Amino acid sequence: MTEAVATTIDVTIAEADWASAVRTVREFAPAGRVLLICHVSPDGDALGSMLGFALGLRRLGVRDLQATFPGPFEIPEPFTGLPGLDLLVPEADAYPNPDLVLVFDVAAESRLGGLVDRLAAARATVVLDHHASNTRFGDVQLVDATAAATAVVAEQLLDRLDVPLDLHIAECLYVALATDTGSFRFDMTTPRVHEMAARLIATGLRPGEISRRIFDSRPFGAMKLFADVLGRAELEPTAAAGHGLVWTYATLDDLARHEQRPYVLDALIDPVRCVAEVDVSVVVKEVAAGEWAVSLRSKGAVDVSAVAIALGGGGHRLAAGFTGYGAPGDVMVSVREQLAAHVVA
What's the CATH code, domain 15-215? Predict the structure, then answer.
């Protein structure tokens, strides 16, 4: 098994913060109970960065180790083959009084749901994230808004802890990096991203197999569901101060009719954002009666993170989200009002 070359690339995190994180992990992890947490409804970066780091801690000899996330204990099908899943436990089974908590890809404590009390219970907390909207919670914050994924921060910390990459750690981090860069297509795909991908692939990964599993495998029912939801999409060329908007919505009835799980809707934003006539795309997904998870994307003319923050959410300039209430039309009224106020180009 080939080990990747150690990274030497700097990120925008102060050396004092790196040193504090390394010191904290080395002090509390070896003989303590370590709990790793990512956000509710975890995506590839949340799961991949968390599990990759957990496997790194296991290589360091940490024995009392759990990984978890709030909400229903359901792993999206594309990620059910990730290494380290044996470390995952449901929210209810997570250590109630951990010595060390490590938080991954979480911009605000509200995204921790019922696990938020573990922060106060822990002797120390370290937060690894790349969201510009991060609220700087926790004892030690490793937040790099220029990083393409939280996995970038996780790899850097593993390197500083002298944990060499192996095939399983690399697979988790590669899935995280690939998902948050849209398979290396988004604007955050910098030379640093490709250099990191090269280090991960050098462990023996087969990127083609991972890409097929993550991006190119979908149930037939999901395809039919997408057809229904895309068929009700609306184009608004004058929205966002003339930069244009396309949006659609998916309901719980849609999921039930096609016998699909909610995670399949995570990929729905991709065909919507491809509409050539607009800058902003929005998908409104029902998660409970009158409650909607709203995904926003921009091609650059609108800062959708500012839109999301104004509506109680967060994210990045080109990709963000928030929780809306009422009917889909009600949610979109608030979105339109914010779009015009946050045009940047």
Answer: 3.90.1640.10
